Amino acid sequence: MKSLLRYTTSVAALALATQMAVAGPETVSGPGADPECFAPVSEDTPHFKWEAREGPYKVALVNGFIANDWRVQMIAVAKAYAQQPDVAAELEEFKVVSVGEDIAAQIAAANNFIDQGFDAIIINANNTAAFGSVVRKANAANVVVLSFDNVIDDPNQIAINVDQKGLGKSAAEFLLSKTDADPAKFLHVRGPAGQPVDIARNEGFHEVIDASGRTVEVTDVVGNWAPGDSQKVTADAIAAGGVFDGIYVQGGSQGATTALLDAGHPLVPITGETENAFRQLCNEKGLECQSGGTGPAQSSVTIKTAIAALKGEVVPQQIALPTSISYAPFEEGVDVFPELPGSFFAGNNFDACNIGFTAEEIASQTGDDN
């Protein structure tokens, strides 16, 4: 009996070891499928291949922070993409949940979808380093994990993003090029504290300033990437006696710009996100503006990547999305859209991925859970 028990235990252990060995993606050589859309970050980027499974698939988007227009539009375009006929045919179910800034709640939500048997989990992470256990659990269950925007650090999942640090660098380069003040004073309207995108953009911004050799005083305020918050903290900074030579707004750019105008502050260069209202203000007031950021439709690229991975196609572990940067005056119908709401973000089409939306498609969706 003891021998049988030892044998049974040994077989079970071997089976578990075998399962763990084959679980998750196989690392393979590139190039991958659809390389124009799924562009690797570098030549050294590893490529993944999961065993192909039969569709249609169950895919979940686990979002964290939701309190700004970009996140709402990101979810809206994800839902719109999931309903396009060719995509809908691949999906049995597409679920969205937003948990706020609670890291533990986001981890629990991801794990819950794994337990429910979803084929792929897409995460916009509240914390880049906190999801290792989720990735391990997903790989053990042969669930594809992908992250975008605020990407997960773990190398055993697919990360899709633009160069967030590069956006901060570009902001600093623009402001430095537009002022001869020495010393110079810049106002930096940041995102939510601790958010990975905010951290990366701040690092890039200060890296360029530090390397410039110029004396620059940077005043940091937290605008939470939201127009109302950005307007208030900018107004407060100016009211406190702040006179600035340039302003960098990570998000909620129209709010900071409105505060500048309302306060009668000298018109200084502003670099902000891709909000329609911000670009309209720059044109109307003749401001020197740079507008660049991350298109909300990167959520749709991530869905497309998930479907490709589930079909067994080879995809890069890190996918680089193009960054869109435009300068005032902005061209109507191309860079700015007077007929659309001010909260609308440009950058919803990724031509290389054959992903695009009409304004009506986006407007028909919400940022709510489903």
Automatic annotation (TrEMBL):
<feature type="domain" description="Periplasmic binding protein">
    <location>
        <begin position="59"/>
        <end position="313"/>
    </location>
</feature>
<keyword id="KW-0732">Signal</keyword>
<dbReference type="GO" id="GO:0030246">
    <property type="term" value="F:carbohydrate binding"/>
</dbReference>
<dbReference type="Pfam" id="PF13407">
    <property type="entry name" value="Peripla_BP_4"/>
</dbReference>
<feature type="signal peptide">
    <location>
        <begin position="1"/>
        <end position="23"/>
    </location>
</feature>
<dbReference type="InterPro" id="IPR025997">
    <property type="entry name" value="SBP_2_dom"/>
</dbReference>
<dbReference type="GO" id="GO:0030313">
    <property type="term" value="C:cell envelope"/>
</dbReference>
<protein>
    <submittedName>
        <fullName>Substrate-binding domain-containing protein</fullName>
    </submittedName>
</protein>
<dbReference type="InterPro" id="IPR028082">
    <property type="entry name" value="Peripla_BP_I"/>
</dbReference>
<comment type="similarity">
    <text>Belongs to the bacterial solute-binding protein 2 family.</text>
</comment>
